[in-house]
Design brief:
Blueprint: H1 22-37, E1 43-50, E2 53-64, E3 69-70, E4 77-78, H2 83-96, E5 118-122, E6 127-130, H3 138-142, H4 157-164, H5 177-185, H6 202-214, H7 218-230, E7 251-254, E8 259-262, H8 264-268, E9 284-285, H9 287-298, E10 302-303, E11 306-307
Antiparallel strand pairs: 1-2, 2-3, 4-9, 5-6, 7-8, 10-11
């Protein structure tokens, strides 16, 4: 199984030019190659950059194990929670435009959060909850201090309530973002907003706030204001027909049988526009596209002649 390379995206400078050790960087390849060779991963792509230049890029394995199709540098991946920084940047663009403030209550944009309560004790069927002592604010969402959670956290009763509501993976297939947020608001919080930290569906709620404030669907807002300006041509919530062959298949590793299990239905959901536009984990992208986004962040909001955010926001 060989490493595959082409010219569209790859290393742009010698590692030494940016103060990195090429020999040590190759240890990254050895580490991930082992996962592929042992059958834990189908394939991967990794890029290491410094001072805005890619000093190391490698890929290995297959984007589909069954067909033996090799990973290429334009392979498209479901980037899951790497979606979160993009959604957060989108929100901050609206903040800079004066359309909302980080201290605004979430209920200002999604009324159902005005009725949200906090878990206290009891059972799933008979929960005992308390009223909010502090409104959930926009900044709570951005910092995962809102009191929301994920069903897959498996840490407390509220996580179980999320799973029963259909949010085990953080992805909802049947409902719109608006409906999902209302369902989340009806569930109790794990803690009072601002009192603790918990990884959660908060960035999905951020996505809905973007829709309400901008009066645009989340996918259209991201395309118009981030993807198109940065030249991220392969980043979206679904893969168009002409690019289906570039999408990496989705697998889960079976620890008992030590084998990869292909998740056909879950993976195929990326081929059509989802009803639920997940700002917390729904995007598909390439290594090259995501590098453009990261380079914009490293440039304190600017990539080339394109500025998305002020440098002050990204200090």
């Amino acid at each position: 199984m060989s490493t595959n390379r082409s010219s569209s995206f790859g290393a742009s400078v010698d590692a030494k030019e940016v103060g990195l050790d090429a020999t040590r960087l190759k240890n990254i390849d050895k580490h991930f190659n082992r996962y592929v060779d042992e059958g834990r991963l189908a394939g991967y792509a990794v890029a290491v950059a410094r001072h805005g230049e890619v000093a190391h890029f490698s890929m290995y394995g297959h984007k589909d194990s069954e067909t033996g199709t090799p990973v290429t540098n334009d392979t498209m991946y479901r980037i899951y929670s790497m979606t979160k920084p993009i959604t957060s940047v989108a929100l901050m663009m609206l903040v800079e435009q004066g359309l909302l403030q980080l201290t605004d209550p979430v209920s200002k944009f999604i009324k159902s959060f005005g009725e949200t309560r906090v878990w206290n004790t009891g059972t799933i069927l008979k929960p005992m909850t308390a009223a909010l002592t502090e409104p959930m604010r926009v900044w709570h969402l951005l910092t995962h201090t809102s009191g929301l959670t994920y069903g897959f956290n498996y840490a407390d009763v509220v996580d179980d309530m999320y799973r029963r509501a259909g949010f085990e993976t953080g992805v909802a297939y049947k409902d719109s973002l608006e409906v999902v947020c209302d369902k989340i608001a009806a569930l109790p919080l794990v803690f009072q907003p601002g009192s603790s930290w918990n990884y959660s569906m908060a960035t999905d709620v951020v996505g809905r706030i973007i829709e309400v404030v901008s009066k645009m669907p989340l996918d259209e807002f991201l395309e118009k204001n981030i993807f198109a300006p940065l030249g991220m041509k392969d980043t979206a919530f679904c893969v168009p027909g002409e690019k289906h062959s570039r999408l990496a298949s989705l697998y889960r590793y079976d620890e008992i049988n030590h084998s990869k299990i292909k998740l056909e239905s879950f993976g195929n959901s990326s081929l059509e526009k989802p009803k639920f536009l997940s700002g917390g984990g729904g995007l598909i992208s390439t290594a090259g596209d995501y590098f453009k986004f990261i380079k914009m962040l490293e440039g304190r909001g600017k990539l080339g002649e394109v500025r998305l955010l002020s440098s002050r926001t990204l200090r």
